[in-house]
Each structure stands twice: as structure tokens, then as C-alpha cells.
Design goal:
The protein is built from 13 helices and eleven strands. It has 429 residues and is an alpha+beta fold. It is found in: Cytoplasm.
Length: 429
């Protein structure tokens, strides 16, 4: 039996009563578990009668074990009975635990906030052309042309922007070589901005076999604190210059990079791809424009714990991205000097936006009765199976292992369907 009373906007107290018969059953289960490890003279381990056990240790010695058995069950039942949607672990306060009497306890619960939607149908969005200009087509072709350029050694000449060069360098600060400041046969693309600002620019014009001293100043926010803001001199020797030679945009090029026989056919396919990409981008822009207006029109108060949970998730994602680059999160914090608290603070505003958006879209789905059928789940799993090349049943098995009941997948599909609903009911401005 449970009673729910709200004490704040998103917080309330569940008063829960568990009858004495269940308490007695839990105490018996607790005894059978605890007695296995109890030594009492005259009895084999695990064979001590309960009366003797309680006389020696007291029935109170079973209370914590019995509570560990009772509380999760009773709390879950009360949440279902009162149709609550908790977003955090409850704070439990035991008010009565005694053999032969009901268990009484209170659970302070933070619940998912109520969302008051504003207008969400008929939201206007700006109509924009998805036409691709000749300039954009030329830029795309130039990008493709550059990606298929051949790097050739230059026998004589000077470094130009875009060249790939092989150099030796030795950097000093106040006449002393610093850690990581020297290398031999180092390959660098001029204009890539992978080196300290100012270094690559000063290499332009350097001739093959020539040596040059380059003076730079490390940025104030440089990740190596001992070098931040310091002036350094790099002695550089140039060994090799490789320069990109662009292929001609002709029929031979089209045959080399595509299934088309002529450049005109290939160009047409490039334009079609650009148009498709532009239309896809515009779809996302419309979605974002409508979602922003719907979210701005909604009223809700987000529990702080939900924001903290989202920050946890974002910080975890950030750590995984760093790990893929071979950089542990702790090492990143050491390089940058950033604390965990500072990183969490950086994620704060985005976390608030994400949580609010998610809650508002959920509220739209609820208001419109948007549900996700088993058939829709299977269709999504089939798409993933087709993409991955794995059998459908194997994909289903993998998802079930990490997402029991497809709860997260259903939530994601529901979110997508709700956004599609908003766009379908939007109005061009």
C-alpha cells in the first residue's frame, strides 16, 4: 500500500506500507542466508535453529538483510501503483521495521517533470531554395580534383603553400632545446596548420637544401604550460618538396574516378549528389527551426539530476572520442590544465538544451498518442541488419543484450516519429 504526496515541483514522498506477513517472509529468507556463515558451538555451520540464532544475536541482526530484500520490491510496486516516472534513485527513510509489524518507510522521489506545451502544430518555417549554384559545383569539382592529385617530387624550386615537405628542425627557447622540439625527416603539409602558428608561413620560399632560422611565439593558451607565451627559434633544413599535380577534368578523369564514360555524365552525377545533399541539409534545418520554436513555447522545470546525468553522458562520449585518438581523458586534462569540474561546466548549457528538447518532444508524442509498434522495431532492426550484413536474428540478439525490451530503441523511434509529425504539420512562412 502506498500514498504519494508532492512536496516540490518535481519531487514528492511515497509513504509505503508492507504488511507483516511479507516482513516475516523476508526475515525468514534473511535468516536462511545469514545462518550459512554463522558459527555457534554445538551446531554445524548453517544448522543453527532460528530461535537459538535470535536468542544469541537478536532478531535485529536480520533486519538489514530483510530490508535489502523488501525495499526494492516494495518501492517498485509503489511506483507502478502510483504511476510515477522516477529519474533518480530514491532517498529512503525507514520509519518502522520490527518483527510482527508492518514495514513502514518513506521514499523521497524525483520524477520526470510535467511539460506544458505551447503551440506545436502549424509552426512556421522559412522556405529556402535548395538550388545548387555553378560556383558550388565548381568548388565541389575542384575538391574532387584535388583529392585525386598526384604528389610529385620537385627537383628544384622553393616551398609554396600546399606543398608537402620533409624537413629537419631544432627548436630552442633561450638557447635550450625543449622536449619535443627537434626532429629529423619530419613530413609537413604547408597550410595544414598542424604546427605552431607562424611556423608553416615562414617556410614558404625556402629552397631545396637551404637552411633557415624561424622565430615564433607559442600561443598563451598552448597546451604545454612551460612553453605558453614563450619565444622560440627553430633551425630548419629542407630536404624534399612534393607538389600536387592536378589531373585534367576530362573524359579520362571521369573514367578513372567513376563508372561514367564522359566528364559531362560524371559532372551531372556530382550535381545530383550536391542537390540531394542540399535537400537533406534543408530537411534538418527545417526540423531544427520547428523544434526550437516548439521547445521555446513549452513550460517545464528540469530536475537538476537530469542535467547532471546528461553531462555524465556527454563527458563519457567525449572521453570515448579522445580514446579513439589514443588520448586518455586524464592525459587530456593534464595537457590542457582543465579540471573535471571545468569540463562539466563546459557541457552544462548543451546538456540543459538536450534534456529540455527531449522532454518536450516526448510530451508531443504523448499528446498525439504516437506509439512505436513491434513491427516498427523489427523494421528498424532489419535496416540495421541490411547495413551491417549480419542476420536479422543476430542483430536482434545484440540489441536485446544491451537494450532489454528495446526500451531505448523504441524511445528513439518515438522521438523521430514525433519530429516527423511536427514537420508534417509545419507551415512554410
Amino acid at each position: 500500500m502506498a500514498k504519494w504526496e508532492k512536496t516540490d515541483v518535481n519531487v514528492g514522498v511515497l509513504e509505503i506500507e508492507v504488511d507483516e506477513s511479507r516482513v516475516a517472509e523476508a526475515l525468514e529468507r534473511a535468516f536462511k542466508k545469514v545462518v550459512r556463515d554463522v558459527n555457534v558451538p554445538g551446531f554445524r555451520k548453517g544448522k543453527v535453529p532460528r530461535k537459538i540464532f535470535e536468542r544469541r544475536f537478536g532478531v535485529e541482526s536480520l533486519y538489514q538483510e530483510a530490508l535489502d530484500l523488501l525495499l526494492p520490491e516494495a518501492y517498485s510496486e509503489a511506483v507502478l501503483e502510483q504511476e510515477l516516472d522516477p529519474v533518480d534513485r530514491p532517498q529512503i527513510d525507514i520509519t518502522q521495521m520490527e518483527a510482527g509489524k508492518p514495514l513502514l518507510f518513506k521514499a523521497t522521489v524525483t520524477v520526470r517533470p510535467e511539460v506544458t506545451l505551447g503551440e506545436y502544430k502549424g509552426i512556421s518555417y522559412e522556405e529556402k531554395s535548395t538550388e545548387v549554384t555553378e560556383e558550388e559545383i565548381a568548388e565541389e569539382l575542384a575538391k574532387i580534383q584535388k583529392s585525386h592529385a598526384e604528389l610529385r617530387n620537385i627537383e628544384e624550386g622553393q616551398i609554396e603553400d600546399g606543398d608537402s615537405v620533409t624537413i629537419d628542425f631544432r627548436g630552442t627557447v633561450d638557447g635550450e632545446v625543449f622536449e619535443g622540439g627537434e626532429a629529423e625527416n619530419y613530413q609537413l603539409e604547408i597550410g595544414s596548420k598542424t604546427f605552431v602558428p607562424g611556423f608553416e608561413d615562414q617556410l614558404i620560399g625556402l629552397a631545396l637544401g637551404e637552411e633557415r632560422d624561424i622565430e615564433i611565439t607559442f600561443p598563451e593558451e598552448y597546451h604545454v604550460k612551460t612553453l605558453a607565451g614563450q619565444k622560440a627559434i627553430f633551425h630548419v633544413k629542407l630536404h624534399e618538396i612534393k607538389r600536387r599535380v592536378l589531373p585534367d577534368l576530362d573524359d579520362e578523369f571521369a573514367k578513372d574516378v567513376s563508372e561514367f564514360e564522359t566528364f559531362e555524365e560524371y559532372k551531372k552525377s556530382v550535381v545530383e549528389n550536391l542537390e540531394h545533399q542540399r535537400a537533406h541539409e534543408r530537411e534538418h534545418e527545417i526540423e531544427n527551426e520547428i523544434i526550437e520554436k516548439v521547445v521555446a513555447g513549452a513550460t517545464l522545470e528540469i530536475p537538476h539530476v537530469m542535467i547532471e546525468q546528461e553531462i555524465d553522458a556527454q563527458l563519457n562520449e567525449f572521453g570515448q572520442r579522445l580514446a579513439q585518438q589514443g588520448i586518455p581523458l586524464d592525459a587530456y586534462k593534464e595537457f590542457t590544465g582543465a579540471t573535471t569540474e571545468e569540463l562539466r561546466s563546459q557541457f552544462m548549457e548543451d546538456a540543459k538544451r538536450r534534456v529540455k528538447t527531449s522532454l518536450v518532444i516526448e510530451a508531443v508524442a504523448k499528446a498525439e498518442g504516437i506509439e512505436v509498434s513491434d513491427e516498427a522495431v523489427d523494421l528498424e532492426l532489419q535496416k540495421l541488419a541490411d547495413t551491417s550484413g549480419l542476420p536479422f536474428e543476430r542483430v536482434k540478439e545484440i540489441f536485446l543484450a544491451r537494450d532489454p525490451g528495446f526500451i531505448n530503441l523504441r524511445a528513439d523511434l518515438q522521438m523521430r516519429n514525433a519530429i516527423r509529425f511536427l514537420v508534417e504539420h509545419g507551415v512554410k512562412a
